[in-house]
Amino acid sequence: MAVDLSPTPDVAELVERTTAFVRDVVIPLEERHGGVARTEDVRTELQRAAKDAGVFAPHVSHEYGGHGLDMRGRAAVFEAAGYSLFGPLALNIAAPDEGNMHLLEAIATDQQKERYLRPLATGEVRSCFAMTEPAPGAGSDPNALTTVAEREEGGWRINGHKWFITGADGAAYAICMARTSGTDAGKAGATMFLVDADNPGMRLVRHIDTLDESLYGGHLEVLFEDCRVPDDAVLGEVDEGFRYAQVRLGPARMTHCMRWLGIARRSQDIAVARAADREAFGSRLGELGMVQQMIADNEIDIAASRGLITQACWELDQGRSAAQSTAVAKTFCAEAIWRVVDRSLQICGSLGVSGDVLLSRFLREVRPFRIYDGPSETHRWSIARRVLRRHDTEVRR
Amino acid sequence: MAVDLSPTPDVAELVERTTAFVRDVVIPLEERHGGVARTEDVRTELQRAAKDAGVFAPHVSHEYGGHGLDMRGRAAVFEAAGYSLFGPLALNIAAPDEGNMHLLEAIATDQQKERYLRPLATGEVRSCFAMTEPAPGAGSDPNALTTVAEREEGGWRINGHKWFITGADGAAYAICMARTSGTDAGKAGATMFLVDADNPGMRLVRHIDTLDESLYGGHLEVLFEDCRVPDDAVLGEVDEGFRYAQVRLGPARMTHCMRWLGIARRSQDIAVARAADREAFGSRLGELGMVQQMIADNEIDIAASRGLITQACWELDQGRSAAQSTAVAKTFCAEAIWRVVDRSLQICGSLGVSGDVLLSRFLREVRPFRIYDGPSETHRWSIARRVLRRHDTEVRR
Amino acid sequence: MAVDLSPTPDVAELVERTTAFVRDVVIPLEERHGGVARTEDVRTELQRAAKDAGVFAPHVSHEYGGHGLDMRGRAAVFEAAGYSLFGPLALNIAAPDEGNMHLLEAIATDQQKERYLRPLATGEVRSCFAMTEPAPGAGSDPNALTTVAEREEGGWRINGHKWFITGADGAAYAICMARTSGTDAGKAGATMFLVDADNPGMRLVRHIDTLDESLYGGHLEVLFEDCRVPDDAVLGEVDEGFRYAQVRLGPARMTHCMRWLGIARRSQDIAVARAADREAFGSRLGELGMVQQMIADNEIDIAASRGLITQACWELDQGRSAAQSTAVAKTFCAEAIWRVVDRSLQICGSLGVSGDVLLSRFLREVRPFRIYDGPSETHRWSIARRVLRRHDTEVRR
Amino acid sequence: MAVDLSPTPDVAELVERTTAFVRDVVIPLEERHGGVARTEDVRTELQRAAKDAGVFAPHVSHEYGGHGLDMRGRAAVFEAAGYSLFGPLALNIAAPDEGNMHLLEAIATDQQKERYLRPLATGEVRSCFAMTEPAPGAGSDPNALTTVAEREEGGWRINGHKWFITGADGAAYAICMARTSGTDAGKAGATMFLVDADNPGMRLVRHIDTLDESLYGGHLEVLFEDCRVPDDAVLGEVDEGFRYAQVRLGPARMTHCMRWLGIARRSQDIAVARAADREAFGSRLGELGMVQQMIADNEIDIAASRGLITQACWELDQGRSAAQSTAVAKTFCAEAIWRVVDRSLQICGSLGVSGDVLLSRFLREVRPFRIYDGPSETHRWSIARRVLRRHDTEVRR
């Protein structure tokens, strides 16, 4: 028991295998498709290859066919997978499925696990998480939730308007968050429901055209209109939805960071290769001070991101809430990764804005991460509030 | 004669008319097309409307049907036009045509003006400027020019490989830069040629897929293969091409800044409207300190950009080279405008990354400006070199 | 009438003379004293030399012995004077005297002008401006003013606690701001009083030890204890103090920027000289890209600062309130100048933190400017509020 | 064996004791002296108290009276000690003594350890490290070393000019770096010598007046003039000086970071206390968004700094060179800590620039850390070079 940063041998080995798999199998496919998988064929091909390579579903427990990695193990493996935009899809660790598996393992009943988790864990089906609403509903402020579920004979009736529901097109089911009690902004009173996609009360309105395009299944606007679900569609306990959301969101924030950190490393590698090969003004690009500065700052941002992810994951694995450390890590990583991609593109110049390398694709994919899962401003507000509360507590003592 | 920042009445009036035209006519079209004009119909409709509104070709001399604005006048009018991505196309002041008109007015013969400038000034045809080459050719370092023109009986034969030739698809002619003497990296020895698009020696290889998409006619890869042109295709004097490039580039840098400053203002207006209307955490978004900070920083960046453009344009209008002030303005504006769009998008949250507002489109369009017309790093290098040379001169005195 | 950035010949000539005076007379004295004038001898010597050089009191009207410069003229001359920490003291344009002269010219009665302005304008006496109070009094929020003046037979009785009263030690009089009506935080109800330093009710408590040390006469804590003043000590109208404060503060913000911009230029010149002469890693320091980047960024920050000052001064000279443009300029300049000094020091390395050059002195002097005259945060808040108000007005229209 | 961030119980307990000691004993003394210890009385009092508290010399091996902490243990304890400017002096872990003890333990002979290390470890004497030279000598580029040691009968004769020799005034001896072979810039050829302070050939020229003032014994300019030392004054092997310098510098960089991270935390605590207590514009300062942003950014910078220190220390404890990770950590920490102190001062406003809190003192102490132990630019250069070299190696494979 002392500070130690080595991964376990199992994790180290899985990282190595994942790295090779991404390099040899995933990236060629990704580059052929410009970083955006648009068909089931691609998904199927990727996932079959991942199973063959023994790297599929690393985060799922052994019982459901995975490797049972804790958060620290995921940190290493997800980063390796995230080195390609197609890596997470291949390993079945892309958002939102990965977070939903985590949530279902934590709170679903055994029957629900069999019906919803098992096929999700194998990649047989996909899922979505229906929480976010357009203004003035639940966005960065979850308390503004306006979707409502009312009890009725033998079940519930859900009405509400959701958007930015990632992966909804083609998902077999949604986990839908709806208010079940309380009328004010208080956190009490939300419940999570499992809604099958063929439920006539759930309607996909449109694909939202977004800057990012790589999340499989898109971002959709979804309507719940008198959507009837039975009692056993309740996930966990009634009125505990906000608490469960935290169970999902803390780790989900981190897994986003891990995956995007992979893209940051990839961007840096592309830029470094360019800086090593390209001549300008009579010397190798990489010998120019301003280029070196960008390369060094990338290296620093990547290392600092990894350090913060490690801290948060370690806390999560100890069963701590890690609210502060996940907020700190998410805020820093979202901005640092963005900077890394931006600098890498800048190093590559015109080539960087062309489709001949994937950097401008990465830039588009990474930008929304400063908004998704809570805008940086919301996280900074919550971080500061916790610091001030800590101060107040210490003073009162 | 004393510091004065008021525009002349003529310019003030033209700005007002342009502002109204953009608001009433241009923006509705732009929003319908998502900011990207893909067909001649759109261009024709826009330019006809601009002529009707009396705002067409403000930078061209009266002789060729324009308003004859100097650089200071352009600064005000182009910013007003740039408030929409479609504004410059409508007024016929988009890149690269606007810079080509400027160049042709300055150095073309009368016959060349009749044949090339007049139809360009009326919008009858479009043009392109073929200077940039893929690595290791002329990119941020123009001295690396590899395209060569060799003298032959009655004319010249051009061979070379260009890319990022904006507007080449559909252009009636290209102004092509080729080395005509000297074999080293020295600046001496380039010449500009007028090459008609139907010349069999000029071949459009492909549209380069780029992060930005709004420049009409795209960015193309172009090959000159034994491209024969007659003697009167020479623009200006033989071997003076690098000097002419500066004639074009100094002002062109500034007109880019002016147009994109319009987009910065537009972005800020979209964000402010959102901040004024949207409620979050119990108050108007615009009452939250971190949002106020972004709004204020936008305001500061816009004002500082305008100040630097004014300085450079005033120097250019005085006939000074303005190499330092245009480099300073270009570097600052490219980064400041980018920050403004980025912050505005951030203020709008998920809406900002969606296609429901044009901010993510603007982000894509504005990013390459930190690379096009010289990456910020190249400009910083040239700025510092001039400062050091100034120091050396003063010390020697 | 068109955009013009040339100074008038008078101003140009005065700038030239000031530049030579600072270089030849002021800087040698400044360096000998490490940038901090601590005795009347130094002040007297400097001001006598400035009078001899014909550059004294450029901002004061001819009637009181000055050059009668408007704000645009001051911008150029004050920057030249500010090139040395001792320049403003020499020209009698240092804070707070310069702002007080401006205020007295604008609102004092003829008798008050003879008694208070004339000896101040000649440098015979110094003055101070007693507004700021320790928390929870008037700091960045002037409405929190707690000093009170109560009417009594033949005059007023002032009670209050002030701090950061610059120049109070040795000042012949103070202009004291006190609440004269209203009990809430409303702006109505403050009055300015002229209080002679020998008034027994005004007591200098202590010199506040501050990071900056170059403002002559220090920053003091001052108590007004039953301080009796006659009716004719009222400056301007009763209850109009907050409005007058704006008369003083808008221009005073700009003159601070002008003076500190001089120090930014000086810092850059010191760093450039070092970069030109010093060898490291086998080349001139100034040939290293990261050093070039700092030099270029300095150049950009200086140019942008100057542009914003010009804009604000032009508005002020037109009689406009210029509240937004002065806030924008002050916020940007305070941070840009700070960056310039910080980078310059960095370029000089260990030498930069030593007393062998004045950069670390400049760093100490310039840092508080991000707080004095309103912290950047307060200005950003006011800038954003004006933007939002403008939006609300336009929408309502 | 898996990622673990808990300290050992011994370290945890020592951190707790150090924290209490700093809070109860050290800070009162520090505040009384304004953060600068100028006399032996203060040093003696502090060190006696640290011995009484059982927290003295935590980094020294048990054999020499210390706690024998590895780098990871030091990270935790030094940060706790660094919470006060006087903490490191009290625990005898201040620069340069701390680094010298580390070096002597690693490479001195037993006799040298008895004579030089033992009295240093107990605080009986102090020492200095004479490497840095004024331009054009060894500064950020150690290869430029100009001090020379020539072999002579029974020993060596040293000649050279050093500056920024921290702690030289009052030191019992210096470890002096001199060139002993090779004439070019090659790294081969330097040797370390133990020079007693009473050696007539070693002369303290002057105290350099610096922005920072808290390092006990000052920064001095030192001349070695025909300074004769015997053969057993050689520390380690002849011509191995540059390699030993790395033995010292890697860990020394980290211990600087640890100590200054303590000051960053202290600054944040001062600012948070202020933000919690102070009212402005009708609310608690800490409820204003821009203040929350600064508090949150401080929290992020502190956490990221700690993560990078942990990474580097773990590598060092594994016996790895850690050249990249210490460079990354040093560069980030120096800038992040600076930002934290700067923001904390900004939050406190006028109070922050006054001597009434120690923030402006901290600002002065922390600024040079971006230059000392290698300017950030030098580290960025070395970081980028290693990245490029890694790329070249991988490509060749």
UniProtKB/TrEMBL annotation, chains A, B, C, D:
Provenance organism: Prauserella salsuginis
Keywords of this entry: FAD, Flavoprotein, Oxidoreductase
Protein name in the entry: Acyl-CoA dehydrogenase family protein
Ranges of residues in domain Acyl-CoA oxidase/dehydrogenase middle: 128-208
Cofactor(s) this protein cannot do without: FAD
InterPro entries in the record: Acyl-CoA_dehydrogenase, Acyl-CoA_DH_CS, Acyl-CoA_Oxase/DH_mid-dom, Acyl-CoA_Oxase/DH_mid-dom_sf, AcylCo_DH-like_C, AcylCo_DH/oxidase_C, AcylCoA_DH/ox_N, AcylCoA_DH/ox_N_sf
Similarity annotation: Belongs to the acyl-CoA dehydrogenase family.
EC number(s) from the headed UniProt entry: 1.-.-.-
A single GO molecular function term of this UniProt record: oxidoreductase activity
Entries under PROSITE patterns matching the protein: ACYL_COA_DH_2
